[in-house]
């Protein structure tokens, strides 16, 4: 999933500071998850930035894409026997 734009993040912070509305109402107004509002405000307070965090990554693949192709071409289906 793509991160929310920096422009949207700025609008959320500006609205929160100017209107002093609840985080729940803010989430409804901008049609985002309440958890996103919590995290965005926390990040803004603690780090002073609105930039989306980088992707956390994940586990490394056990097989490279080339090896997957080689292994899958070696497999035969029961219909071919």
How would you describe this structure to a colleague?
- The chain is mostly helical.
- It is 57% helix and 0% strand.
- The protein has four helices and no strands.
- The protein has helices spanning 6-19, 23-30, 34-47, 65-74.
- The longest helix has 14 residues, at 6-19.
Rounded mean pLDDT score: 84
| Radius of gyration, whole Å | 22 Å
Overall geometry: elongated
Beta-strand segment tally: 0
The CATH class assignment of the domain at 1-53 is Mainly Alpha
End-to-end separation in angstroms reads 42 Å
CATH arch. level architecture of the domain at 1-53: Orthogonal Bundle
| Strand and helix order | HHHH
Relative strand content: under 5%
**CATH third-tier fold name of the domain at 1-53:** Arc Repressor Mutant, subunit A
- CATH homologous superfamily name of the domain at 1-53? Winged helix-like DNA-binding domain superfamily/Winged helix DNA-binding domain
What is the share of helical residues?
A: 55-70%
Which structural class best describes the helix and strand composition? mainly alpha
| Low-pLDDT residue spans | none
Question: Major β-sheet, in short?
Answer: none
Number of helices: 4
Topology, pairings included?
Layout: H1 6-19, H2 23-30, H3 34-47, H4 65-74
Helix pairs in contact: 2-3
Characteristics of this structure?
single chain; 81 residues; mainly alpha; Arc Repressor Mutant, subunit A; 4 helices; 57% helix; 0% strand
């Amino acid at each position: 999933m793509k991160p929310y734009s920096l422009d949207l993040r700025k609008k959320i912070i500006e609205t929160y500071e100017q209107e002093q509305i609840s985080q729940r109402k803010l989430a409804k107004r901008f049609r985002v998850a309440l958890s996103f509002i919590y995290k965005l405000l926390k990040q803004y307070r603690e780090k002073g930035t609105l930039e989306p965090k980088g992707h956390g990554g994940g586990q490394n693949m056990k097989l490279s894409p080339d090896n997957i192709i080689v292994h899958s071409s070696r497999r035969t289906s029961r219909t071919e026997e």
